[in-house]
Amino acid sequence: MPIPAYKPPSKDRYDIVIVGGAAVGSSVAYWLSQALGDNASILVVERDSTYTFSSTALSTSAIRQQYSNPINVKISQFGVEIIRSFAERMKPFYPDEPSPDLGFKEYGYLYCCSPEGVDAAKARVDLQRSLGAHTVFLDQDGIRERFPYVNVEDLGGASWGAEAEGWFDSMGLLNGFRRAARRSGVEYIDNAVTGLTVENGRVVAAALSTGEAVSCGTLVNAAGPRAQMIAGMAGLSIPVEPRKRHSFVFSSATPIPGRMPNVIDLTGTFVRPEGELFLTGNTPSDDGPAGYEDFEILHAEFDEYIWPALWHRIPNFDALKVQQSWTGHYEYNTLDHNGIVGFHPEVANFMFANGFSGHGLQQSPAVGRAVSELIIHGAFQTLDLTPFQYERIPRNEPFMEEAVI
């Protein structure tokens, strides 16, 4: 297939420039385009238009409601609403072909806890259920009854999302948002922002790697793991860095009966079915900042840490063979593992949509809507994401989430 000729931006000024066009950036573009129509010019600058190295494409594409923070539960509930209704929502933008079905597998999460962690796990379940989630707490007998292949000897129990949790097609979500935004007038270009011009407390222009510069009314930082790079161009700083996450798809000589959930082990290792195979990963043993271009996979992570954890928790996994592996990046917020959403108080038209620490894909529907509300109305109109706003960063006041994977 021939490489398409470079297409420069069609204008030298846009009302809104979004840096990054993966799940979060394209969700922002979608919600803005549906609210503003032809009343605003919107440009999305995406450095990797194939999305080969995007966190969206390299994610494990899952969504859960098992959080310790009410707002994170509500964000996921809206995400589930969008995922379930996505094909219907996208129909107007696919007039001549089927709209994307995200293939949502509502198999739930089984979040294991130690005997010492039972009270905290039950408190989280109570919180989640008070917000309408379907989470239940299972003791050892309850786990054995539903998931007899799980070793419960060292467990105090587990919380299980009986519905509205599972995994889905990440690229289907991204491509749907992107197509809808483009068909609603949003312009996408394959390019990179290399500099920002700030005057009188506002970003006035973004320089592109191809030499052009575009003026903007609002600049949205949706650059994922490169969020701090973009913030730094405006003289700003956020505690967001790339962290590598290795994913492995394996086959097992022994099948797992029934509908298997996403099992989260005490070690942080997770495993779930992927068709006839299984997908697994963990928080790496050497979990530090990575280079922006470093996607080298650490195969020893599977052999030394993941497989022993899998075999201990699910003894059926005694004979495994890795079939595929890859490495993606979390945009890791080192302060509190939660997103940063909102305008900067001094560079007044610089909008953050960053630092979701592995939750960006599942939170992208709600975050995109929230960013559009801030830009259009100056305040949140639906979910109140005020705890995610930038102001907590310089105050060093974490907005903590206990249930981090």
Q: Total helix count?
A: 9
Cα-based radius of gyration, to the nearest Å = 21 Å
Distance between the termini: 40 Å
- What form results from the Cα inertia axes? globular
Helix content: 25-40%
**Tally of separate domains:** 2
Keywords: Oxidoreductase
GO molecular function, one term: oxidoreductase activity
Domain FAD dependent oxidoreductase: 15-374
Organism: Aureimonas endophytica
Helices and strands in order:
Blueprint: E1 13-19, H1 23-36, E2 42-46, E3 62-63, H2 70-84, H3 86-90, E4 109-113, H4 118-130, E5 135-138, H5 140-146, E6 157-161, E7 166-167, H6 170-183, E8 187-190, E9 193-199, E10 202-208, E11 213-221, H7 227-233, E12 240-252, E13 262-264, E14 270-274, E15 277-281, H8 300-313, E16 320-333, E17 340-343, E18 350-354, H9 360-377
Helix pairs in contact: 1-6, 1-9, 2-9
Q: What features would you describe in this structure?
A:
- The protein has nine helices and 18 strands.
- The protein is α/β, with parallel strands linked by helices and 405 residues long.
- Strands 1, 2, 8, 9, 10, 11, 17 and 18 form an eight-stranded mixed sheet that branches. An eight-stranded mixed sheet has the order 5-6-4-13-14-15-12-16.
